[in-house]
Amino acid sequence: MAFTSARSGARPLNLALAGTPPAAVGDVAADLESVRRALGADRVEGMHQVHGADVARVPAEASDAPVPQADGLVTDATGVALLVRVADCVPVLLADVDAGVVGAAHAGREGVRAGVVPATVAALRDAGARDVRAWIGPHVCGRCYEVPVAMRDEVAERIPAAGATTSWGTPSLDLGAAVRVQLADVGVTEVEHLGLCTMEREDLWSHRRDGAAAGRLAGIVQVVA
Length: 225
Hints:
- The protein is α+β, with helices and mostly antiparallel strands.
- The chain has one domain (2-222): CNF1/YfiH-like putative cysteine hydrolases (4-Layer Sandwich).
- The chain has 6 helices and 14 strands.
- The strands form 4 sheets. The protein has a 6-stranded mixed sheet with strand order 5-6-9-8-10-13. The protein has a 4-stranded mixed sheet with strand order 1-14-7-4. A two-stranded antiparallel sheet has the order 2-3.
- The protein is globular and about 50 Å long.
């Protein structure tokens, strides 16, 4: 598994969904192909992320079916890398190494509220996973993710750990903390949290900081034979 926006020449890789803004930032197809080659994967599978809690199962065989509208992916197929795109939301990678089952989840504010991470863990277990480990990648942190007080209180009412305050004293959300609580609630206790904030680091894409000019970084996980 990996989280990447590693630089290609003088710019970060842009792993946006091809054909959609901000795909104009760099050469998305070339960046995706360079990632596939670096991983040694047969193919890289993403999703059209819609800020919900639906989870799609990715089969071993490639198809011409549309990219799934989902915020979680699960597979037990070797050679298939799952990719979750973010530019401030929380990328979560999941794996049971012994069972050979992996998953990826896109946890934005609405996805956290809807429970996309627990839903993805449940889909992994349905696919045979038992001992699930998790990795939480770069995302906007609670020190920076300013929101209206009503929005913070609405999310924190459901997940108290999400309530936070910015470094300048205004209401905020800590989605990483909320995800850690959700993982613990479904029995995932081995969690690595990278602790990198997309707004604070210039080498990471941030939609809040850069607006429409922001590309996408990615979390990627695959089953290795």
